Amino acid sequence: MEKSIIYVVSDSVGETAEFVIKAALSQFMSENDYDLYRIPYVENIEVLRGAVYHAKQLGAMIGFTLVRPEFRKFLIQEAAEKQVECVDIIGPMLQAMERKFQIKPKEEPGLIHKLDEDYFRRVEAIEFAVRYDDGRDPRGVAQADIVLIGVSRTSKTPLSQYLAHKQLKVANVPIVPEVDPPSSLFEIPAHKCIGLRISPEKLNGIRRERLKSLGLDDQAIYAKVDRIESELAFFDNIINQLGCPVIDVSHKAVEETANIILNMINQPCWDLHDRQINQ
Questions:
Q1: Which of 32, 124, 129, 226 is most buried (most C-beta within 10 Å)?
Q2: How far is CA 169 from the centre of its chain?
Q3: Cα–Cα distance between 58 and 36 in angstroms, integer?
Q4: What is the pTM assigned to this prediction?
Q5: 86-93 mean pLDDT
Q6: Nearest CA to 52 among 68, 71, 70?
Q7: If you ran DSSP here, which 8-state letter would residue 197 be given?
Q8: Do the Cβ atoms of 24 and 61 come closer than 8 Å?
Q9: In angstroms, what CA-CA distances link 239 with 143, 148, 195, 218, 232?
Q10: Which sign, positive or negative, has the C-alpha torsion 99, 102, 108, 113?
Q11: In whole angstroms, what is the distance from residue 206 CA to residue 235 CA?
């Protein structure tokens, strides 16, 4: 028995058409009983004409996903004239959605793969933020798009995760007087570091509530005002050495701080001399 031949024609990669065709073929035969020939990235009518010609010569059928209506129309007409079995896989769905939503499709090939790439970049960024959270691995500093630095309880971790969902690789480094920051922090461009400043009063309240939630004494050294002021002084000293931007997060939600950072990095050239950001 001769193998059945199917041409997979697409103005993108052709994966969608191939998946649907294979799913349908599985109802009739095994993979050893047919050959698929993919014709991807169709950009002109002549390629479609050639596909129909070869399908006619080999007794093959065609399954296609073409988002451009002129391509779909030509291929259907050409196949009908040459008496080649031809199936439009995506066209009827596009037409139905156009009627339902009352808007025109974008007619741009490959959009689903663009979405997939965005998804995988987001997952990669989230994994990066987890791996290099709280200074656990200083190697992340050199690889990060952004490095957040600040004392404990300045929302470094949730901010890292929020920015990761925007496809940014973020590492964060805690600033503690007893521990020297990683040397790599002083080797990267200053604009990649962003300091998170907070007022002593605000931090005192946050740390006291944190201790209570853990069932601990809210008068522990961790929440003492003099300890907080010592940490913030050390933080300011590090910031002065780095010369990096600083955002006051005392009265900002994570989303607000994230939007400030996104606006900063989206500027073609932002002023590093104006390092104190209180907006």
A1: 129
A2: 10
A3: 12
A4: 0.61
A5: 92
A6: 71
A7: E
A8: no
A9: 20, 11, 7, 29, 10
A10: negative
A11: 18
What is the total residue count of the chain? 279
One-letter amino acid for residue 240 of the chain: N
Predicted local confidence at residue 1, as pLDDT: 60
Exposure of 214 by Cβ count < 10 A (0-12 exposed, 13-18 middle, 19+ buried)?
exposed
Q: Give the model confidence (pLDDT) of 234-257 as tens digits.
A: 999 999 999 999 999 999 999 999
Contact 112, 94 (CB under 8 A): no
The SS3 call for residue 65 is strand
What b/e sequence results for 138-175 when a residue is b if at least 16 CB atoms lie within 10 Å of its CB, and e otherwise? eebbeebbbbbbbbbbbbbbebbbbbbebbbbbbbbbb
Residue whose pair of structure tokens reads 């993979």 in the numeric block: 31
Two tokens, residue 20: 């649907």
Choose among 71, 67, 34: nearest CA to 51: 71
Q: Could you give the CA distance from residue 60 to residue 37 in angstroms, rounded to a whole number?
A: 10
Closest by CA position to 11, among listed 93, 163, 128, 113: 113
Amino acid at 2: E
The candidate with the shortest Cα–Cα distance to 144, out of 135, 153, 152, is 135
Instruction: Let me know if 231 is exposed, middle or buried by CB neighbors in 10 A (0-12, 13-18, 19+).
Output: buried
Tokens at 99, concatenated: 């009627």
Structure tokens at 222: 């961790």
- Please state, as a whole number, how many other Cβ atoms lie within 10 Å of the Cβ of residue 275: 17
| Amino acid identity, position 186 | F
